[in-house]
Structure formats: structure tokens, C-alpha cells
Design brief:
alpha/beta, 5-stranded mixed beta sheet, binds glutamine
């Protein structure tokens, strides 16, 4: 889960690429490095031929789209967060990007399902939303290099007989609309109910209507910690749920912003900034 493990996991994933192909849409991307370079549809419409460092100087404002319902990556903090009321790992990354580039950064909080459209419409410049890099999404947007490694997990009430993904068959399964977790369950061929927000799915589980919620690992951990009385536990199935990588998305062909963001992510992964943020917010989530 931790970024430190990311490279190892990515390497393992790469080596077993033949095996994970059938899970790819469920588990996310098989690529281990920056995808945009091989993107045939990429254009140079922006007229930018500059490298990351040079182009960064030209960026004075970035509107990031997110869905602040995905702790510990993005959530609204009543006491104030990294950017206005928005806090979390992604929000701290966005703030750091703004500081480094000398750009004004703002957050547009919209439904997760609408983020890709908002980017295509030009309503936002980039998506930072714990968004998994998938082949399907890459058809409509460009992603930066990965900055975080995750996987889908199952949250159940202690005692529910689910030890692996296949055990969900016949159970009441809850997912969140448009998340990769939904894709995973769909691919398994099981019926499910999809909720607009994570907390709604968790409430359904706590109330006993749903037997299991499928969601990203770090977010699952946060919900389990936040609902101690409900005796929720996490069940992993790494054979079924492949490793996923989060990336920041930009509009197709926006190479100027993409280069600047890639340079930032490379730096923040390399110097441990993102690993530290992940630890910091995971600890905060347990308090
Ligand atoms: N990683 C999941 C996805 O990309 C969930 C992201 C989110 O809810 N913010 O679908």
C-alpha cells in the first residue's frame, strides 16, 4: 500500500503481465511508467515544445477537479485543510505543486462520475482524485506517471463468510458509482448496488442491508477506523484484485501541464514527500 512498496509491486505486476491481463480492467493499468509518450492521439495543440522545467514557468493557475468524498486522499475538513476546506493526501500534493510552480491552485469539488467530462469540457485543468489509471480512461484523458499504488478490497462485518472475492456470489454487494471497484464486481458477473458516495455504501453495510463493500484499500482502512463500533474488517484477495496506480489526469494533448505535473510527481515520489503524506494522513485517519 505504501509508496515505498510501489516499485516492487509494479515490477511484480510487470513480470506477471500475461497473467493479469484478464484482470487489467478490474485492477487498473499494467503500465509501469509514464504512458503519455506512447499515446498516439496526443497532439501539440498547445504549441508547447518546451521541457518540463521551461513549460512550468508558463503555468500560473491550475484548477484541480476532485471529489472530496474519498478519505484519506480528499475530504472536507471543518477546521480547514491543505487548500481551503479541502484536505487529504491529494490536496496536499496539489498544494505543493502550486507552491513549486508558483501557480495559483484551486479545487473544484464535483461528482466522481463527472470528473472526466469536466476535464474534457475545460471546466477543470486536471483531476486529482485517487483516480486509477485505466486503459478505458486513457482513451479520453492523459495521465501522469503513477504516484500511489492501491488495490480493491472488501469491507465486511466481522463474521460474514467472505474470505475471497468469489465468496461474494449471492451476497448483497455495494460499490460506488464509477469507481474501479464497480468495474471489478461487474467483471466477476455478480449483481450489486451502486451508491453515489462511499459513506452511503458504508452506512448500508453497517445497517446490515449490504454484506460487503468493494472499495480502494486506503479508503477502506479509513472507514474501518472511523466506525470502530461496527466491527468492520477488511478482506483482501490479491489474486482477484490486481494492483492499481493512481495518476493525475489532464485534457488530452495538454502536454505543457502534463510535463510540469510529471516533473513534480517524479520529484515528490523520489524524495519521499508522497510516502510521508500517505503516512501522515493514514495516522490522522486513525485518531
Ligand atoms: N481509485 C478508484 C477509481 O479510480 C476510486 C477513486 C475515487 O473514488 N476517488 O475509480
Amino acid at each position: 500500500m505504501k509508496v515505498m512498496k510501489m516499485m516492487k509491486k509494479a515490477a511484480a505486476l510487470f513480470l506477471t503481465v500475461g497473467m493479469v491481463v484478464s484482470l487489467a480492467a478490474c485492477g487498473g493499468s499494467n503500465s509501469t511508467s509514464s504512458q503519455p509518450a506512447e499515446n498516439k492521439e496526443e497532439t501539440t495543440e498547445t504549441g508547447s515544445t518546451a521541457g518540463a522545467a521551461e513549460s512550468a514557468a508558463g503555468i500560473d493557475k491550475i484548477v484541480f477537479g476532485t471529489n472530496a468524498e474519498f478519505p484519506p486522499f480528499e475530504f472536507i475538513s471543518s477546521t480547514g485543510g491543505a487548500i481551503g476546506e479541502f484536505d487529504g493526501i491529494d490536496m496536499a500534493i496539489a498544494k505543493q505543486i502550486g507552491d513549486d510552480l508558483g501557480a495559483e491552485v484551486s479545487i473544484n469539488n464535483i461528482e466522481f462520475d463527472s470528473l472526466l467530462i469536466a476535464l474534457q469540457n475545460g471546466q477543470i485543468d486536471a483531476i486529482i482524485a485517487g483516480m486509477t489509471i485505466t486503459e478505458e480512461r486513457k482513451e479520453s484523458v492523459d495521465f501522469t506517471m503513477p504516484y500511489y499504488n492501491a488495490t480493491q478490497v472488501m469491507i465486511i462485518k466481522e463474521g460474514t463468510e467472505i474470505a475471497k472475492a468469489a465468496d461474494m456470489e449471492g451476497k448483497n454487494i455495494a460499490v460506488i458509482q464509477g469507481y474501479t471497484g464497480e468495474t471489478c464486481v461487474k467483471e466477476l458477473g455478480f449483481e450489486y448496488v451502486s451508491f453515489k458516495k462511499g459513506p452511503d455504501a458504508i452506512m448500508d453495510l453497517i445497517n446490515g442491508k449490504s454484506d460487503v463493500v468493494v472499495i480502494d484499500s486506503a479508503t477502506a482502512q479509513k472507514y474501518v477506523n472511523d466506525n470502530k463500533d461496527a466491527n468492520l474488517v477488511i478482506v483482501e484477495d490479491n489474486d482477484q484484485f490486481a494492483s492499481e496506480e493512481y495518476g493525475i489526469a489532464v485534457k488530452k494533448g495538454n502536454t505543457e501541464l502534463l510535463n510540469a505535473l510529471n516533473a513534480e510527481i517524479e520529484k515528490m515520489v523520489g524524495d519521499g514527500t508522497i510516502a510521508n503524506l500517505a503516512d501522515q494522513y493514514a495516522v490522522a485517519a486513525e485518531e
